[in-house]
Structure formats: C-alpha cells, structure tokens
Specification:
Layout (H helix, E strand, L loop, with lengths): L4 E3 L5 E3 L7 E8 L5 E6 L5 E3 L12 E7 L4 E5 L7 E3 L5 E2 L1 E2 L11 E5 L18
Parallel strand pairs: 3-11
Antiparallel strand pairs: 1-2, 3-6, 4-5, 4-7, 7-10, 8-9, 8-11
Length: 131
C-alpha cells in the first residue's frame, strides 16, 4: 500500500501517513558523524520527532521502531536540518523510508547517512533506547 498524499497550495505533493493498521518494524542506524533527527510524518503531514527527548540519534546509535505500513519516515541533521538519506533494498539512495508489512523476519536495517558518503564501515553500533 502506498502512502497517501495531500495537495499543497503550491501544487507540491506533501507526504502524510496512511491509516493502514498493518504492522511493520524498522531499525534506524545513524551511520553519519552527525546527530540525526528521526521524523515520522503523521496523518496531517506534520513531522513528529521520535528523537527529540533524547537530543537526537547520535553517531553509531540505533533506534528500533514499531511502525505501520504506509507511515513515511525522514531523517535530518539535528543542527543544520540538512536532508539525510539511506540506501534502499534496490541500492538507491532515498530520502523517505516507507515501511513494508512485517513478515515475521527481523526488522529491516535502515542505515542513515550523509548523501555521497559510504555508510557504516566497520564500526560498533551503540545501544539506543527502543521506542
């Protein structure tokens, strides 16, 4: 199921979550040297920062998420608000992560990185409290 969108006045399409109710899981790993904000895009198209209370996702930390199919996630540099990306299963750099329905296998690993940099080369991942 693809995410729902709404039209902005400028004609630009804006992301928002779809109310699918279909469970999904993801593990977001910060493979950059920056502190990352991890945002869920809610049903109104608003950003919800899942790392705000902890001051962001520090380098090498991870966040395990229980989410739903059709719930888009984006990643931003905490200080500059620069867009961060991840490598998709199709080996493409993507800005928006769309969870897929859980099939009983371990959660997909989403390696957050700075565009143009190689992610997660031989470093130890630090524990980050699960949500």
């Amino acid at each position: 199921m693809m995410p729902a969108h709404r039209q902005e006045q400028s004609g630009e399409r804006r992301l928002r979550s779809d109310n699918s109710g279909i469970r999904a899981f993801a593990t977001f790993i910060n493979c950059s040297q920056r502190t990352v904000k991890v945002f869920w895009i809610d049903f109104r198209g608003e950003r919800v920062d899942y790392t705000r209370e902890r001051g962001g996702l520090k380098p090498r930390q991870y966040l395990q998420m229980h989410t739903f199919e059709g719930h888009p996630w984006i990643f931003r540099d905490k200080d500059s608000n620069d867009k961060l990306v991840f490598k998709s299963v199709h080996n493409q750099l993507e800005e928006v992560y769309f969870p897929v329905a859980w099939d009983g296998r371990p959660a997909p690993i989403i390696k957050i990185q700075i565009p143009g940099f190689t992610p997660c080369k031989n470093f130890v991942v630090k524990t980050f409290e699960s949500t």
